Amino acid sequence: MTRTTTPHHTDKALETRGTYGACERREPTPTPVARARTVLISGASIAGPALAHWLARYGYRPTVVESAPALRGGGFAVDFRGAAHLAVLQKMGVLEEIRRRRTGGSSMTFIDARGNHVAALPPEFAGGDVEILRSELSRVLYDHSCPTPTPHDDTTAPAAVAGTTTAYLFGDSLTSLTETADGVHVTFEHAPPRTFDLVIGADGLHSTVRRLAFGPEEDFVSHLGYYVAGWDLPHGAAPDLAAHAVGYNEPGRLVTVGRVPRRAGDPSYGGEAFCVFASERLGHDRRDPQAQREALVQAYEGAGWRTTELVGTVRDADDLYFDAISRVDAPTWSRGRIALLGDAAYGATVGGMGTGSAIVGAYVLAGELALAAGDHRRAFARYEQKLRPYVSRCQEGGRGTGAFLAPLTQEAIAARNSALNDPAALTAMLQEGQDISADISLDDYPSLVHHDTGSDRNGS
Ligand SMILES: Cc1cc2nc3c(=O)[nH]c(=O)nc-3n(C[C@H](O)[C@H](O)[C@H](O)COP(=O)(O)OP(=O)(O)OC[C@H]3O[C@@H](n4cnc5c(N)ncnc54)[C@H](O)[C@@H]3O)c2cc1C
User: Fold this and answer.
1) Is the model's pTM score more than 0.85?
2) What class has domain 77-133+222-327+400-438?
């Protein structure tokens, strides 16, 4: 069923328009924008709402379609590190809010099968400069892509300053894209067909826009030999374990457990588990959560310490995040009026700074569109030219993440632990991450750009 909005949003538009909702079409306040161009963004996680935020500021009329029935929860903490990430968040007006919602991070202790300390990860290793739950970040970006802060929102920062706002369409997905001379005709699973000036695929590793416009997933996504999983522990499950963040390795397998201090007030929250394990591509149906749970339990069969008890809690988890550690390499990020952003274009799953790259990418893509004043070909080319070297380095940085977290042999585990116990080696690793994430010079884009081309051909 097509759901039009998240529960906390009500909008008169819902009653009259039926399918589109959330923050659509409060009548534009007078602005210098003559006619906003329409952009369909597929995906409302991180890259999608971030792009919508900027496009609305520049006077475009973004519509975001999300296949989930509401903003997706789940996923553990994601982090921002280095000057570029922080500068973009600052420009968006969300940095302080993200800081207010920071997880508080925590260090993690690696233990052996008897529970003895063997190495430690300092908080900044995984948490960067600021760490936030992925679901909370998605909510912050969503709220800031709409013109009015929502009632639960404690920020007073203005969201979009231009006269247009973002429409959200939940519980739906594109089914076809047909480019014509002056637009892209889009059909949906549920909503009536529409034509947009531009379409952006911000729909993640398994992007539908990429499949429809560029080709099958296997042409773009490489499996890096590992899987990652994360879920919340039911309250009361293994309470002694979750009290301190610990990680246990066996060759090719890692299981960790801990608690995010910020969530301590939630009575249903018992901590969270995070696993990384080496595996060839699994044959399970990746859209089937039960098949994912079974694949995970199977992958940890026979493991020592209290792994079986911990991994067994996934049977009752309804928020499991489970995916292959993969890398996306798309030879080009645009085709005509259609472009890719975030994981859909340059994903790296874990350790490749995917969230920071999504935010920086959204800033550059929207800014170049605004600068090019309607010339999407020029804008898409400049976006790719500026961003590709940066995200390629970030992706390269993430290539070894699986092997770092779940080394394949006992000797490799010992070598990893020695490096973590060596302050100089640890400092060098942290510095490398900072350097890579800051290695882009960001242009200042105009705060508002006039458009005199483009139209909404759908009569709304
Ligand atoms: C539920 C979830 C949990 C995650 N947990 C973690 C984590 O714990 N650690 C980590 O490092 N990374 C995690 N990620 C990935 C991380 O969010 C991304 O690597 C990064 O932030 C880049 O974000 P993105 O917006 O490009 O892609 P994603 O965050 O993957 O978002 C893609 C969005 O597109 C939607 N979508 C997919 N197909 C369609 C379609 N056909 N039509 C409409 N919408 C569609 C998805 O539902 C999703 O909301 C998670 C992603 C999701 C969706």
Assistant:
1) yes
2) alpha beta
